[in-house]
Amino acid sequence: MPKIHVLVSANLKDRLGHARFSIEAGTALGVLRAMADNSEYGKIFREEVYAPGKPVKAYCIFMLNGQVLDAKSLDKAVLRDGDMLHIMAPVGGG
Amino acid sequence: MNIFLNEKKVCAAPGISLARFKREHKPGADVLICNGAPVPPREAAKLRLKEGDAVVLIRRGEKPSRSEACALLCARHSAGTIAKFRKTAIGIAGAGGLGSNAAMALARSGIGRLIMADFDVVEPSNLNRQAYNMSQIGQYKVDALKRNIRQVNPYVRVDAVRVKLTSRNIARVFAEADILIEAFDAPISKAMLANVFCRRFPAKPVILASGLADCASSNSVRTGRLGPNVYVVGDMRTGVASGVGLMAPRVGIAACHQANLALRLALGLEN
User: Which residues of A touch B239 (CB under 8 A)?
Assistant: First the structure.
């Protein structure tokens, strides 16, 4: 399985406890599943980003190596070793 | 010899000074610009004009024409800078605190075209941070904003689009924008814009905003880059919540971060 670098936005970092993660998964959706299953921060990840069996939270933006990924095609995005997945959850106000 | 006065060709005596040229063409002028550079009136007698020089003469208190307004901006920022701004179309999705303030900053800077879209009307509660006034309550925001822009720079092309932006119309509304500023309130709308626009126009820069509520430190509002064409402004943390509202200074700071980044992108300074 390729090893993926995951970077989360500051508000998610505050909740998950880390800004960077190293996850082994073959697709972007696989990364989210692995994070949702994590014993340390999985519960919060499921609340904030993705819970298996449910759609990803509509307020999230996913970027793979700097390119925005459609939430519907997260399972189609095949990953390679060293890829960077950025998860951003914007906060309200404008 | 020929001199371009306010972009029109006029004949002048060879070697004429700027002071004499002014006396002959616009004696009351007190703002003198030669080839894009302001000339203090006391130095006008020493400056000899040459064939093809471009001179702009403006009388203080007088509303400048399009070419005079452009010349004034060029004198401040250089002709090359203003030429790039005038060629640039900037889309603004939402005309609230971020959108209205970013639009005003861009209009003052001399941007060529603004494509602004919003469905809402001005409410009294907007006036604490948005670029509207009491007399505009009840007006569509994009129409009110267009009028306000006209008051400071009537020479910006403004497309005021009264529409609720959705995943179905964002690409059409902003198809002609070179750069897009996201100025929505709701996180779900911010994400929708990024997801739709970035996939449809991956080569066009998008400037998102996240984290500008309350009165936390001004310096925590930052401009960051998430990808080659995706930028985000804000502290990424401070969202609107119960007891945490939006205030003019921090919203304005974030809006000006967005506007400044748009100008830098227009100038090719962010590559």
Answer: 11, 91-93
CATH number of domain containing A13 = 3.10.20.30
Q: In chain A, how many domains are there?
A: 1
> For residue A34, is it within any domain?
yes
Domains of chain B listed by start with CATH number: 2-76 (3.10.20.30), 82-266 (3.40.50.720)
Residue A19 domain-assigned (yes or no): yes
- Tokens 């402004």, residue located: B233
Tell me how close the Cα of A58 comes to any Cα of chain B, in angstroms.
6
A86 touches chain B (CB under 8 A): yes
Whether residue B244 contacts residue B214, with contact meaning beta carbons closer than 8 Å, is answered with yes
Residue of B nearest to A62 (CA): B195
Q: Do the Cβ atoms of B211 and B234 come closer than 8 Å? A: yes
Give this prediction's pTM. Answer: 0.91
Q: Which domain holds residue A53?
A: 3-88
CB contact under 8 A, A91 and B188: no
Residue A31: count other Cβ atoms within 10 Å of its Cβ.
27
For residue A94, tell me if it sits in a domain.
no
Identify whether A30 is part of a domain. Answer: yes
Give, in order, the Cα–Cα distances in Å from A39 to each of A21, A44, B126.
14, 10, 44
A61 has a chain B CB within 8 A of its CB: yes
pLDDT per residue as tens, chain B (271 positions): 999 998 789 999 999 999 999 999 999 999 999 988 889 989 999 999 999 999 999 988 888 888 888 888 888 888 789 999 999 999 999 999 999 999 999 999 999 999 999 999 999 999 999 999 999 999 999 999 999 999 999 999 999 999 999 999 999 999 999 999 999 999 999 999 999 999 999 999 999 999 999 999 999 999 999 999 999 999 999 999 999 999 999 999 999 999 999 999 999 999 7
Residue B91 in contact with partner chain A when CB distance is under 8 A: no
Whether residue B177 contacts residue B228, with contact meaning beta carbons closer than 8 Å, is answered with no
The answer to whether the complex's ipTM is over 0.85 is: yes
Residues of A in contact with B188 (CB under 8 A): 58-59
